[in-house]
Amino acid sequence: MNDKTHLEEKLIATIKADGPISVEQFMETCLGDPEHGYYMGKDPFGRGGDFITAPEVSQMFGEAIGVWLATAWLMMGKPEKVNLIELGPGRGTLMVDMLRAAKVVEEFTEAIEVHMVEMSPALRKAQGEALKGLPVNISWHQRFEQVPSGPCLIVANEFFDALAMKQITQVADSWFERMVELDENGELVLGLSEQPVAKADIPRWAKDAKDGDIAEYSPQRMAMAERVGAHIKKHGGAGLIVDYGHAMSFAGDTFQAVHKHKFVDVLHRPGQSDLTSHVDFEALAEGFEAGGASVFGPRTQRGFLIAMGLREREASLRKNARARERIMVSRQAERLIGEKQMGNLFKVLAITDGTLEEPHPFGLPDEMSGGDKGNDQS
């Protein structure tokens, strides 16, 4: 019985015909293949999917970002029209929550033109349902380059981690790219390139690595960051990037696959498992700066959300809730800011066009929330 996925069969045929493919090509194909890619024909979010993102955990996440955007718009001088651009908008939940919170500044809501950058037909449909009836103009785009000119506010939550990355392994004094090839039984396995990687392509921070170490870098993420930075620099505005990853570049293998809320082997059921790796925020910041943007942070999601009033919003939601709902609200808050949950692993980076003051709360020490114990669970 053949239990291979359609994409696995396609990958095996490609490798048989053309030879091994890079981890970068494997990841890109698994996620974005037009016929069988992970994001192209299904809704992977929520409890019925493979993973839950922060907007699906609680409305408090999107509301905090909505308030941040409203404040940024005021700092921009209240432009009459502003393009609110979301990269990889998931189900549309984050946009709904951001727009609800944006109502605290009525003029801001009236200025917003929503632009959703989404390649997945299935997710576009879900987003359309979520945003149906909202009093804003909404446009969808396959690529970021299709977004029109004008002052902008950009949000990317768990967008960059899904852009493909390269992996290289140090062997003796050389680096070799990690590849996906076939074993003697014709099954997918990880291997190494026959030729070493050119020294010019090796990240400078990898020079202190040891034999056997794995380094990750993503030309795709860097190129996208540079395009976003250039857009903000040219048209004016600000952006907020939220993702899981590390603040500083270092060697390590963070390539992972998730299927039905469980970690699985990265070669498990290609096209049906979500493939990601941790975002290198130091490298990402260099990409934004190369485009001309100013960068602030990163700081932890915990520090950002607490500084943006998450505890106060939690208390407000609990105030008029029944006992079971109060427990749920506090558990949701803990999921977002708990040090052993999303709070420290996820980072938040702000970018501006260079004319704006340092946005709140990036001028505050990230440790400001370290002693916060939160509300009890009763």
UniProtKB/TrEMBL annotation:
Keywords: Methyltransferase, Mitochondrion, Transferase
Primary localization: mitochondrion
Cellular compartments per GO CC: mitochondrion
GO biological processes: methylation
Subcellular compartments: Mitochondrion
Keyword RNA-binding (UniProt): no
Alphabetical list of InterPro entries matching this protein: NDUFAF7, NDUFAF7_sf, SAM-dependent_MTases_sf
Residue ranges, annotated region (Disordered): 357-378
GO MF term list: protein-arginine omega-N symmetric methyltransferase activity
Protein name: SAM-dependent methyltransferase, MidA
Organism: hydrothermal vent metagenome
